Task: structure prediction
Amino acid sequence: MWGYHQMGHEPRRCSAAIGLGSHDLGVATTAADLYRTGLFPVLVFSGGNSPTTAACFPRGEAVHYRERALELGVPGEAILVEPRAGNTGQNIAFSREVLREAAVEVDSVLLISKPYMERRAYATCRKVWPEVDVVCASEPLELDDYVKSIGDEKLVVDMLVGDLQRVIEYPKLGFAIEQEVPEHIRAAYQRLLRAGFDSRLLKP
Result:
């Protein structure tokens, strides 16, 4: 399931990048690393607050991401902040508006997210911004190393399960494009549900 959530895209030069807000500051670190390689001239950090990020990022996800990127040497003039988004669709739609207002012409976008969020971010962007070419990237970590970086194994597995549910269900709700989910991935999903990894499921 960890591997399925990642798109396997080769990072390449894009018109702009969007760092998708979350509890994971590794998104900002990865964005800074990719900026230094010259893959994009401008970077939008997007995200307000959620119940899982209000305590760790009290000024909002995008603001804290920006501060991290500045610490890592990304110049302030290369960073735009979108501080309102509360979900992935808003991350992309509001970032698109911020880029438009900044007069940045975009025909391709590098989406930078948590490793297990790549596929859902891709599917959402293809729905919300279908005319743009989408490339996905995330911190290059194996599952064990990611769990260590977060420090909560159950939380990470709960999130893997929750994101897969969204990959399956969001197209029916009009939030994302449909994607193939292999049977062995569906079977793993059901096993994890039965084992109690269900705290990140969509509310009925």
User: Anything to note?
Assistant: Strands lie at 16-20, 43-46, 79-82, 108-113, 133-138.
